[in-house]
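Can't paste images in this forum, so I'm doing it all in text. The chain is below; anyone willing to post the predicted structure tokens underneath?
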Amino acid sequence: MSAAQWRKAMNFSATSRHWAGGRVVPPPAGRAATPASTPPAINGQRLWRHIGARHVVVLAAVLLYPWIVPPFFTFQIGGQALALGLIALSLTFLAGYGGMLSLAQMTVAGIAGYVVAILGESGTPQISLGWPWWLVVLFAIAAGTASATFIGWLSVRTEGIYTIMITLAIGVAFFYLAQQNYEIFNGFQGFQKVVPPVVLGVDWRSPVPYYYLVLFWALCGYFFVKYLIRAPFGVALQGVRDNARRMSALGFSPVAHRVAAYAVAGVIASIGGVLLVWYNGLISPGSVGTGWLINILIIAVLGGLRHPVGPFIGAVVFVLLQNFAIDLVDRERFNLVIGLIFLVIVLFSPDGLLGWWAWLRERAGRRLARSAVGGKDWRSVGVQQARPAGRS
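Text version of the structure:
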């Protein structure tokens, strides 16, 4: 976090040297207001400054992807990875920028998926209500966001292992509720034939339309998080993560910021839950079981918790292993393969695959710098050039 971002989030007046506690402080009497005493407005230009050539290349690649690969890779790999990555993005936002590790993000997505099946159309018409799809989606996102806010309200007053245990207990409780309730959740059978609607003559269940649908929402989630972490709320949330007591002394409410972060993560996870239930075409207690609660954590950690693109990279790796690891080992041993890879990454790269990529880029940059100065250490050469003339 840069000093400029910190001052903007704290509304600190560099001229008057007074903390505003979240409010703009007018300049002292007799002194005209200066641009330094007024925090600049947050606009979209900040976001575009961080978009480079690599973003354009990646965007072109994901747009052309369905026209290069077979439909299996478009739907099974691309569509599923983007939907899972969107759910894992909500966990990355909470853990990476809020310091709150929640194991209930798949539960939030599952609640949204169940609302789609119950209020919409499914293969169980005696329970499903058959409402219009657009109204069902709005209710699903609202229900998921409300449940995430409630989970946050329960868990934000704890830290560390206690937060993990509370969110895990909520996830397990919802699993058993869905499994044992037949009037609303249809018990262990769940709901079959939960398919996306046909809108404007487009069957969104088809591989290419579904891929572009989930890609659109994945990009929206990615850029929204990128913008939010640089906005005053995001910077203040990172301040709460680093030192909650100091932020409270400065006039910020750590509890309110954390609960709001859970609500934001709930919106992202709910959208991912709607897309995932449309991908699977069904929702059952197995979709929100303990295994999937842990899988979302694995996906987030595989890619890296310090960047919004990390969960999507982790989701691609996870889905590829899920589909092709059976060529090397038995299907029953898939979790063993995932566990070994997860263990290696945690031990040797705490920042996930992005951490390895950053390390490789830094190492390559050092090699290029050494070769540019004739094999000498670029740091020592820089020190010699910085010394004044006439001194040894």
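The mean pLDDT is 81. Strands lie at 198-199, 202-203.
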